[in-house]
Design a protein that fits this description.
This protein is mainly α. Helices cover 91% and strands 0% of the residues. The longest helix is centred in the N-terminal third of the chain and has 54 residues. It is rod-shaped.
Amino acid sequence: MNRIGLTLSVALALGLAACGNESPEQAQRDVAEAQAKAAQDVAAAQKKAAEATEQARRQIEAAQAKANASVEKANADAGEKINDASAEASKVERDASNDVTDVKSDAYRKDAQARYDLAVAQADADYKVAVQKCQALPRAEQDPCATTAKAQADAVKQHARSDFDNAESAAKAMKQ
């Protein structure tokens, strides 16, 4: 995340230093390079989000399989000592249910984090492209264009943060 911010800062500084000195062809190449870099950044964020989601899914499946195995074992033991085993099976089932709920809550939070990271990466990538496009405009239009692009990126990030905060609250509520 910091690397993206650093890259953006360097790109912005270099772009501002060259304001008005670029030919339209160079500006177009810069925009194309920014678009290609943005596509790479977004693809990497999508891959990371998919991996996090897949890992969370596997954890849920493993927890569910473990819980099912625990419940089945407890029920089998209940055949020998009905009263004692039934009480134990109920306890194991409650504990297993709590374990599954904990894993689901953690998976939900990890998925929300992955979606947030993806949204931020997309906003940063879109901002980089917009800045390159702004640099191709006449000097008087560059600053307002860049300000608008920054405001749009910040709004997307704020919305993503709000979605993440809501998902994190929901994940905490699952555990209660």
